[in-house]
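Exercise: predict the fold of this chain.
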Amino acid sequence: MPGERGPRGIPWRTRSQRRRETEQEIEAHLQMRIDDLILRGLSPEAAREQAIARFGDLGRARADIEAAARQRDRRLEWTDWFGRLRRDLVLAGRRMRSHPGHSLLVVLIFAFGIGLTTVMYSLVDHVLLRALPFPEDDRLVALESVPEDGDSFPWVSMGNWYDWREENRTLESTGLYGAVQREATIATPEGAFTVPGVTVSGAFFATLRPSLVAGVAPSEAAVQAGETVVVVSEGFWRRVLGGVTPIGGALTVDGVPREVVAVVRSGHEMPEGVELWIPRPYGSETGGARNNINYRSVARLAPDVTAEQARADLATVAAGIRERDPEAIYSWGVGVRPLRETMIGDAGSYLGMLMGAVLLVLLVACANLAALGFARGRERARDVAVRLSIGASPGRIVRQLLTEDLALAGLGGLLGIGLAWLGSGPLVELIGGTIPRLRDAPMDARVLGAGFLASVLAGTIAGLPPALASARRGGARLTASFRPVRRGRTLPGAVLVGSQIAVTVVLLTGSALLLMSLRSLTGRDLGYDPTPVVTADVTLVSPQYRGDPGLDRVIAYWDRVLDELEAGPDNRSVGLGNWIPTGGGGASFIEIPGGPEDAGAGYRLVSENYFETLRIPLLGGRAIAREDRAGSAPVAVINKAMADEFWPGVDPIGQRVRAPSMEGYWFDGEAPWRTVVGVVGNIRHGGFDSDTRSEMYVPHRQMPWMARSMTAVVRVGADPNARMEDIRTRVAGVDPDLAVNVATLENRLGRGLRQRRLISSLLVTFAVSALVLASLGVYSVLSFAVQRRTREVAIRSALGASRGGIVGLVVAGALRVVLAGTAIGVLLAIAARGVLDALLVDISSLHPLAYASAGAFLLTVVLAAALVPAQRAARSNPVDALRES
């Protein structure tokens, strides 16, 4: 600004000032030449005309002089700016050294808030903001089925996809992959093991174009011609194949020798977590087979084609399918969604919520430090007053005070970013399987830049308000502030303290609601008893179990497994199921005489003692028996939900039902009619957060084609973890060429709650962090308030005030702020309750206990923090206090 000088005493100049100086300089040069020419005998007019002619282009001269002046001023401004910054940093460093305890506290608070923000941003950035690892990912979409109600869902049938592929005009390419990730069995001379695998068809690799470490992705034509190949992940390549070039080598996958043709680079796996891609041919399907929705589809839009255009194009194809094939119940359109959305799922909503919670914690930290700055403004008022009185401008005061806070924020930011860098790896390893696209979240320049920006913003938010307040008071008013305080009943920075309390109440209330919801969820009746039960998954992939001759071997294998496990020590009961609880499931269209069309029910294969092992109650009739095998009368057991849905008020025992979409293929299109022989209780097959539905159970011996992949369930009498190895050994001993995966049913059940538990745990952590910061803020601000009221407290003590009265006097001021902040926080939590609605189960977002418990907990902790300085004030010696004041 004009008149303000830099370190060299050179004033800053405006553009108009530079222009006037330029004109004056040019005029001075001209005048000198004119005077010389006049002395030589020329008239003044002629001398001026000749001087201008000899000078040259005046406009060019003005421009050159002004440019040089601008460059000089800019250089001087930068020199001045760096000089002032250096002096401000020196002063800030002196103040930090003179108050090391306060400085360390501020740095640690900044480090905590900025570190938490940085590591959370790294997750959000990697999952939500970064592009997919495939070329031109904005053209990648997922194709979805659309039923009559118009709501699309991601599972598709090969028959519908085949027609989309053949008849569309807007897709460059499209591929198909299995809807359910499965465990592929790898046979080696050292033994068999399983890895996550998926079957793919069509132009899957040509559509995604993943980066390859080695080899060439298989072509669609080669797979259609019958080539048996496999693509492996980089992790599998390094871990299993030793990192050597495997191209052309053989790998036995699910009992079939396959040639390894390519290695997918780490981070380019699709679906996420897959280690093997098993290409298989595709073909057209019609009739009921068209409705077997066992796949997902990925497509690449043609250049310059939008998702809306592709949706309209494919809707025409879907209408043609429905017209020529009336059984196509999932062909009322085709959903076209960006592939990114399907990969992320609902992670965007809860990551956004957690990021918002972290930002609230950072705001609490900033408000904490700002309130502390207001309180400390009284302490450093004398220094501010002196500097104002000797000519420092308010802006200079603000700049100096803000520099001190930014320096502390910078140190805290460096420490916080370092902690985030150290902690991000273990955090990703801990939660990587819960959040999609989080196998790797690097701390790169983008994340470090976000941490730096958070440091600057946090330092500014925390330092600017108290700095402005200190400068605004002026020298006389600040000097007056050192007189005995007469009106000290207001807590310094009360608004900021109340804001911390309000934000903390919001976080505590959300945490309480999530914890109550989780407790209610895990308290649901599953319909079965998961403890103590050990499970053993086996898939019969050896060639001996394929084809019609292999069906007898399939049943014989499971009979031997049952006999071996029943002979095990402390094995109370043993059963088999192909889709046990927590292990996925199948569903089938069903028919009953005189029943509704397009009815459906869950479909399971089970053995005898299955219901007894899982303690699913038998409500009527009988359970599956060992005598229910091929050649005997087809039977089924149904659950109560199916009985109530299809035979309300009628005894379902003896009724008939069949499952054409599940069994028709194995019986030449005519599924057998089964007699209902028993009714069992309903179970939550998908875990605590699933609902019960109609289900039918079929003897595995009557469906050997579908019994090649089963799970043995063993109820043991001791610790299930201690029995796992014996059970693994017994099952593996039946056929050493098969892989056996053993787990406890309780652990499998817990996997379904990992995401909810993670969200709840993180939100509780953030809420507790905000509570600690708010308590620390109340303690720090109240300590300064007590120091400010030293004279008043001393006088009250000298006049006979009791310690309890002094404590009450000090706490009362804090209590008013805390109660006001709590009330505002409750109102804010009520207003923001919709954020949690999608995550709450069996709990209303307005549950009064959550709000009451959050408020009571906060009041208890914060007031406990307030009692410390209050008791210190009550114990002070009035004589010493008066002398110090």
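Check your answer against the key: The chain has a mean pLDDT of 84.
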